[in-house]
Amino acid sequence: MKLELKDCVLFVQVAKTGSLTKAAEQCFLSLAATSARIKAMEEEAGMPLLIREARGVRLTPPGEAFLFHARAMLQQAQQLEADLQEYGAGLRGHVRVFANTTAVTDFLPDILAAYLMAHPHISVDLQERPNADIAADIREGRADLGIIAGEVDMHGLTSVHFSTDRLVLATPDEARWQGVEALGFADVLHEHFVGMHRSSTLQTFLGTMGQQLGHTLKLRIQLASFDAMCRMVAAGVGIAVVPESAALRSSTRQHLRQIALRDNWAVRPRYMLLREGSSVASHVQDLMHAVQQYHASSDA
Fold first, then answer.
1. How far apart are the C-alpha atoms of 78 and 62, rounded to whole Å?
2. pLDDT in tens, the chain (300 residues)
3. 3-state DSSP assignment of residue 125
4. Within 13 Å of residue 57, how many CA atoms lie on the same side as its CB?
5. Which of 85, 154, 190, 259 could hold 169 in an S-S bridge, CB 3.0 to 4.6 Å?
6. Selection from 135, 125, 133, 132 nearest residue 159 by Cα
């Protein structure tokens, strides 16, 4: 299809208002011109995109698909404009990083703070994504670098292992937990939990694991960081599943215990992902090196 961005803008307005007349007004077009352009889009698509009714229009199933992609094209165009403006202001590089919850909340803030200070003309777009989605996004070129934990489909990807993530059970330092060295996730599903925020990929994963075991997690509160979760656990609000590094960091200054999880999914290798065969910009290579160096020093 031969589409222009103004066609996408018009179609989005038609879908939003449910009216050709109102869309024409929003786009400063005549009703006749609006009708003609919509008809041209339908001819290009080879199928009707709208159902005309007495009180307006509604989308056909192909029209719904058209709307989804029209919005995506407009968002990409806006991002392109923003990126070019940054380059015009002196930016020399941009890195899009898609990472899982642990990376976004636990170790990337420290790494990126040092990286951005050392690279004043580089900007970073960091977004939290589920592990499987990250792999697909890198494969399809929507991000430059992916950071995941666990096993995903590596087809079409180059992976670099940089550390191992271990999830542990964080509990209050109470008598009933003393002497307990390891438990299965199924053993504690009757407990109250302190969780990560609702959009967290880790929280979604734990909810899925609980459902597979026939339970819905009893969440007392959901928070935005592992440190905040550990403070709640130490106060006796509930228990939590957190990265071992977060539990260790918190247990040094709070009344907190950590118990190993016996479940296989609790031990997760961490990888950086790149699109297979793609050239890697020097500033992306620098960021990958920073991630490796951070974990080499942490493990030491």
1. 24
2. 678 889 999 999 999 999 999 999 999 999 999 999 999 999 999 999 999 998 899 999 999 999 999 998 888 888 777 766 666 555 567 899 999 988 998 899 999 999 999 988 888 999 999 888 999 999 999 999 999 998 888 999 999 999 998 999 999 999 999 999 999 999 999 999 999 988 888 899 999 999 999 999 999 999 989 999 999 999 999 999 999 988 988 876 778 999 999 999 999 999 999 999 888 888 999 999 999 999 987 765
3. strand
4. 24
5. 259
6. 135
